[in-house]
Amino acid sequence: MLDGDAGDYFALLKPRVMSLVVFTAFVGMLLAPGEIHPVLGFLAIVCIAVGAGASGALNMWYDADIDVLMGRTAKRPVPAGKVSAETTLAFGLFLSVFSVGVLGLTVNWLSAGLLAFTIFFYAVIYTMWLKRSTPHNIVIGGAAGAFPPIIGWACVTNSISIESIVLFSIIFLWTPAHFWALALFKSADYGRAGVPMLPNVSGERATKHQIVLYAVLTAISGVVPTLMGFAGIVYGIVAAALGVAFIWYSVKTWQMPDGDEKMIPAKKLFGYSLLYLFGVFTALAVDGLVAKFFGVVA
């Protein structure tokens, strides 16, 4: 008999991460040229969500030993003893096979293959290898969270294009500044768990330099859709404004004295980074809807 209740299994899916995956994949589908039947589009989003949840479950299975040592993860179902590691592994593997198989059989096998690779990348390359072996874990591992727009695009077009790679790049370049801001004020947690996050290995000052660098790169990547012509000028203005604010928050974090116990600027940057990504992809979604329904690029 399975252990845990429905709420515990839902928590294994990392629903907050899943919601971001679903949203960015939907935007990829929306911006892709061509059409997909609404039923197939909905089914594709469900499969992508389930695949993301499978990645989360496999991550929690493998990381249970370090999750128990960190305040923000100690209450997860596995370290809290609500769901066994064995059940979590089986749950994650079942959802992985199910999501990839259904997506391939109903939509296309390119999108299914990309989903399978994303699950593998997050669960094996990032979780089992990079996370515990290099302070650049989140730079390389961030690719896993950046694939959903490409998968969404492939669901519609059965192809990968430069436009979908640009969407990938926005998330990929955003990830380090987002997670290193978190690592600055959670460095004690990572230290206890032995995870070599950049602040623990190279120090706060080096981390702040990298945060500013990646914030600038993210801001630049955010306006590329307009420069390439697959998003309009209104989107470009919104993305530029959001990017300038992202850089401003990163500079405030850079100016924060080393050893600051409150870490207020880093916490504000972390919070704003979520708003930035949501804002950019919302603006892209609006631009895509206007283009599809009115035949113009906003």
UniProtKB/TrEMBL annotation:
Intracellular or extracellular location(s): Cell membrane
Transmembrane segment boundaries: 17-34, 40-62, 83-103, 109-130, 137-160, 166-185, 230-249, 269-294
Pfam families, per database record: UbiA
Example GO molecular function: protoheme IX farnesyltransferase activity
PROSITE patterns assigned: UBIA (PS00943)
Entry keywords, A to Z: Cell membrane, Heme biosynthesis, Membrane, Transferase, Transmembrane, Transmembrane helix
Catalytic reaction equation(s): heme b + (2E,6E)-farnesyl diphosphate + H2O = Fe(II)-heme o + diphosphate
Note: Carbon 2 of the heme B porphyrin ring is defined according to the Fischer nomenclature.
Protein name: Protoheme IX farnesyltransferase
